[in-house]
Amino acid sequence: MTTSAHTLRLVLGDQLNPQHSWLSQVDPGVVYVLMEVRQETDYVLHHAQKILAIFAAMRDFAHQLRAAGHRVRYVKLDDASNRQSVIGNLEALAHHYQVQQVQWQQPDEWRLDKLLADWSAHQSLTCETVGTEHFLTGRTDLEELMGKRKQWLMEHFYRHMRRRWHVLVDEAGEPEGGQWNYDHDNRKRWPGTPAQPEDWRPAHDHRKLWEMVQQAGVESFGDPQAEAVRWPLNRGEALQCLDAFIQTALPHFGNYEDALASNAPRLFHSLLSFALNVKMLHPLEVLQRAESAYRAGSAPLAAVEGFVRQIMGWREYVRGIYWAHMPGYEAHNALGHHTPLPHWFWSGDTRM
Question: Which CATH fold would you assign to the domain 141-197+249-330?
């Protein structure tokens, strides 16, 4: 069996989107590459569940690709041939498959973006970057919208986005219910009722995977809960989580959006951040499901608007701020903080 191919396509651990246009056709000359590398586990200290959830979802995604007929090269953390860096593995695999082209989707980190761009500048291979087909804005959209404004107010951006994507607005582009923001309605203290819904997320036994991560010497913080990791493996599970949130928690999300309760750690939150951040779910489909619940009368406007503001407003806005100010943004320290982080930052033991 020939090992040659014309193209390597790198899929990063937060790019697990089975609906990406790359995957619309099967090409035997294309090899999809996913890799578990110490470069990514070690550049900062990660929560144990993040490492487990991403590795498990990557492995499941590779399985899905193979089942759909795509060629896949999956590099496990403990593989003898693993160079433990993205570039090291790419170079070795490009040589192994004798490819003419290497492609990747835009990373969501400046660090990786620059790493791949610098590498590609010195290659005789054709290198191509494509979009992730995920976010509702481009990297520079916020900066272009704000221009030379002294204050880059999220509220201004949020209203622009509501009109642009026609979410919770009427035909004239005015806000549903007559106001843009129901934040003042979403600050209630939870009195103990209604009851927190049952945890709808799947539970996966990742003890063998965690054993491999530990044997490799990867450092982390937090409780891995490896015997029952509660984050979805794939889009199918993520959609089930979305359904459960819309049906059981969204109606109460707004009232208790900012509430804290020691005996109800989840309250009415969506728990969809992981599925969104690794791109199992698209933000627009999540927003449309929430709006449909309002239109159907199964969730109040204040709750739906509060949720829309998180996904369409803050999530896209913070991303725009990041790309507008990188590199160097992480070192600004505008508030002048220099005290080391307290132990409870890492342990979660805040006594709150």
Answer: 1.25.40
Torsion of CA 146, 277, 26, 124, to 10 degrees: 60
Residue 319 CA: distances (Å) to CA of 22, 48, 259, 316: 24, 24, 25, 5
The number of helix segments (H) and strand segments (E) in the chain equals: 14, 7
Question: Which among 86, 95, 76 is positioned nearest to 3, based on CA atoms?
Answer: 95
Q: Does domain 7-130 have CATH number 3.20.20.140?
A: no
Summarize the chain as % helix, strand, coil (round to 5): 45, 10, 45
Distances (CA, A) of 171 to 63, 174, 175, 296: 44, 7, 10, 18
Q: pTM of the entire structure?
A: 0.94
Q: 37: helix, coil or strand?
A: coil
Residue 146 tokens, joined: 């704000």
Domain boundaries, the chain: 7-130, 141-197+249-330
Sign of dihedral through CA atoms 155, 157, 161, 164? positive
Segment 303-352, tens digit of pLDDT:
999 999 999 999 999 999 999 999 999 888 989 999 998 988 888 888 77
How many C-beta atoms lie closer than 10 Å to residue 186's C-beta? 20
82 vs 88: CA distance, rounded Å: 8
Q: CA 224, CA 210: separation in Å to the nearest integer?
A: 8
Q: How far is CA 122 from the centre of its chain?
A: 30
Asked if residues 303 and 287 have their Cβ atoms less than 8 Å apart, the reply is: no
CA–CA distance, 97 with 241 (Å, rounded to integer) = 39
